[in-house]
Write a structure and sequence with these properties.
This protein is mainly α. The protein has a domain of about 90 residues: Orthogonal Bundle (Rna Polymerase Sigma Factor, Chain: A), CATH 1.10.1740.10. It is built from 6 helices and no strands. The longest helix has 21 residues.
């Protein structure tokens, strides 16, 4: 029978963390970075140049950015909203947010990451709002006669009060129905 030392608790397999040094791995700071490309699809210098051109109001720079990311932005927005037209509105609002916030962009992440974070926040907000919203056309979409009343008139008493189930029994005993229809 083997003895287990009780002086140190056994580490949980999912909670143990090995340091890169202990695992014989090289730390990220020790790896030479290839400055020829990054996650945004361009070089660091190219992205820096693009950001400066955007901040200076270069329309061609903005057009190239829209051409590069618009399709992907629509797809990401569609993950949060129910309709393509709403997704296009969200993307349009995102581009406005990008242009308005470009001077506040601190470059702690790539331009692409920053743009898609703005998009995701706007799409999530819009998706939640859309979930609480019913359009007028959805609420009244029926082929009924427009002259026909929305509620059967027999559901109202002559006084304008709603007819409540069991109302005939209460009326016989002298009680009145509760609730009125206010226009």
């Amino acid at each position: 029978m083997s003895q287990v030392s009780t002086s140190q608790p056994m580490p949980h397999p999912t909670r143990t963390r090995s340091t890169p040094q202990a695992a014989g791995m090289i730390q990220e700071s020790q790896v030479p970075r290839d400055s020829s490309s990054d996650a945004s699809g361009g070089t660091g210098a190219e992205e820096q140049n693009l950001i400066e051109r955007l901040r200076n109001g270069d329309e061609a720079a903005f057009t190239s950015l829209v051409d590069r990311y618009h399709g992907a932005m629509i797809r990401v927005a569609l993950a949060h909203v129910s309709d393509r037209s709403v997704a296009e509105e969200v993307v349009q609002e995102t581009w406005l947010g990008v242009m308005e916030g470009l001077d506040r962009f601190e470059e702690r992440c790539s331009l692409k990451t920053w743009i898609f974070r703005i998009l995701t926040n706007k799409a999530k907000t819009r998706g939640v709002r859309e979930g609480r919203h019913t359009t007028f056309s959805d609420a009244g979409a029926c082929d009924d006669d427009p002259e026909e009343p929305a509620v059967d008139p027999s559901r109202f008493q002559r006084s304008g009060f709603w007819v409540v189930s069991g109302a005939s029994d209460r009326r016989a005993s002298g009680e009145t129905a509760a609730g009125t229809c206010h226009a």
